[in-house]
Structures are given as structure tokens and as C-alpha cells.
Design brief:
Order of helices and strands: HHHHHHHHHHH
CATH superfamily: ABC transporter involved in vitamin B12 uptake, BtuC
Number of strands: 0
Length: 257
């Protein structure tokens, strides 16, 4: 194993930790399909990065950030559910992204490839993952109350609009980080599957969060090792690894019940 392998492995672990932790909140808020759709919103920004020769991650995040502001604003102006608004942005962005992304770069944009990250990109990904994890842990109690009942949250002084904007911003950051790993096509699974596995065996929300992170780490390690051994893109291998873990956790749940 060379230095690039260990760089990819460490980056994958941190990105998967942040995605797994976010996944526990996504499932609690019943936004699993939203996470999958939101990942495609980054495509136009990535396309602009490729066309004008700047970092596609920056383009993807800026597009996501703009979409998050639009979704958050329209939610309170139209009273439409978030999943409906995300669906509108998703379809428009997917169409625009496919039109703009050069054909030779389309596959990597869809499936990702963490093995080609530079050292500086890996460091930035790790630092942003730590920030994401810290932010989620810091707001977790307010976020949980907001998800359970906006009226209850408001009655105890929680600013619902502010906490939802922060949550969506964290969501956008996680999606932008994960796209380089598993691509826009598979990003939703990076967030959802480890958390779904954790839900099968958890008895408390703290346990749910911890197991989501653990399963994310295991999937990242397995996916990175197997992809290097087989010399294939790590994104699909990661998702297959995560799916196997989900099946095992589901069988464990059935045996225990």
C-alpha cells in the first residue's frame, strides 16, 4: 500500500463519519430521499468548475449553498414541504449538469473517485468533516426538538428558521464532501445506508448516532481496501460494503426479536 492509499483511506474515514452522523438526523426527519436528490444539485457547479478550470468541489458547494438558500426561503414563503422543493431543484440541476459536464468527466462526476484527491484536497475534506461533526453535535438537542415538534421547539425558545437553515447548510457541506468520494449518483447512499443499519440495532438516539458513525467507518475501510485491491472506483464498492452491513444488521435485528 502506498502513501496515496493511506491518504485516501483517512479521508474516506472522516467523510464517512460525518455522512453517517448526518444520516441519523436525516432518517429521524424522514428526509432519506431528499439527501439523494440534493446531491444532484451540485452537478451544475461541478460542471462550471470543470469547464473553467477551478476546483469542482468549490463549484458544487456554491451551487448547493445557493439551492439551500432557495429551498429554505421558499419553504416559508410557499409552505411547500422540503422534499417537494428539493425535487424541483433536483430535476432542474440534473438536467443542467448533464448538459454542461464534458462527456469525458461525466462518469467521475456521477461515481466519484477519492483515489485521485490531492494532499491539499484531502486535508480540506478532513477539516471540513471535523467541522461538520462538531456542528451537528453542538446543535443536536435543538435539532431533535425541532424535528419532533416545531411548536414545542418555538415554545422553549428555539429559533426554528435558524436551526433549519444551519441543518440544511450542514447537509449541503456533507453532500459536497461526499460527491468526490462516491459521486452525485451514489451520494444519498453514503448518508442513508450506515444510518439505516444503525437504526436496526440501536435502542437510543445516542446509540443510533454512534453506530451510524461506526458503520460509516467500517464501510469506508472496506470500500477503500477492496477498491485498491481490485483497482476499481471506490464509490460503488463503498455502497456495496454498506449494503452488506445493512443486511447483516437487519438479520441481527430479526434474530434478536
Amino acid at each position: 500500500m502506498d502513501a496515496q492509499f493511506y491518504q485516501s483511506l483517512i479521508t474516506a474515514i472522516f467523510v464517512s463519519m460525518s455522512a453517517g452522523l448526518l444520516g441519523s438526523f436525516v432518517i429521524l426527519k424522514r428526509m432519506a430521499l431528499v439527501g439523494d436528490a440534493l446531491s444532484h444539485v451540485a452537478l451544475p457547479g461541478m460542471a462550471l468548475g470543470l469547464l473553467f478550470h477551478f476546483n469542482p468541489f468549490i463549484g458544487g458547494f456554491l451551487t448547493l449553498f445557493a439551492a439551500i438558500i432557495g429551498i429554505w426561503f421558499l419553504k416559508y414563503q410557499t409552505r411547500l414541504p422540503i422534499d417537494t422543493l428539493v425535487g424541483i431543484f433536483f430535476t432542474a440541476s440534473l438536467a443542467l449538469g448533464i448538459l454542461l459536464i464534458p462527456q469525458q468527466d461525466l462518469l467521475e462526476a456521477m461515481l466519484g473517485n477519492i483515489a485521485v484527491l490531492s494532499l491539499s484536497e484531502s486535508i480540506i475534506s478532513i477539516v471540513l468533516s471535523i467541522i461538520l461533526i462538531t456542528a451537528l453535535v453542538a446543535i443536536r438537542k435543538k435539532l431533535i426538538v425541532n424535528m419532533l415538534s416545531e411548536e414545542l421547539a418555538q415554545s422553549i425558545g428555539i429559533k426554528n428558521k435558524k436551526i433549519e437553515f444551519v441543518y440544511l447548510l450542514i447537509f449541503a457541506l456533507a453532500v459536497a464532501l461526499g460527491i468526490k468520494f462516491v459521486g452525485a449518483l451514489l451520494m444519498g447512499a453514503l448518508v442513508i445506508i450506515p444510518a439505516a443499519s444503525a437504526k436496526n440495532i440501536s435502542k437510543s438516539f445516542n446509540g443510533f448516532m454512534i453506530w451510524s458513525v461506526i458503520f460509516g467507518i467500517i464501510s469506508a475501510i472496506l470500500g477503500t481496501y477492496v477498491s485498491y485491491a481490485l483497482k476499481v472506483s471506490p464509490g460503488p464498492i463503498f455502497i456495496i460494503s454498506a449494503t452488506i452491513i445493512f443486511i447483516i444488521s437487519f438479520l441481527f435485528k430479526k434474530l434478536r426479536s
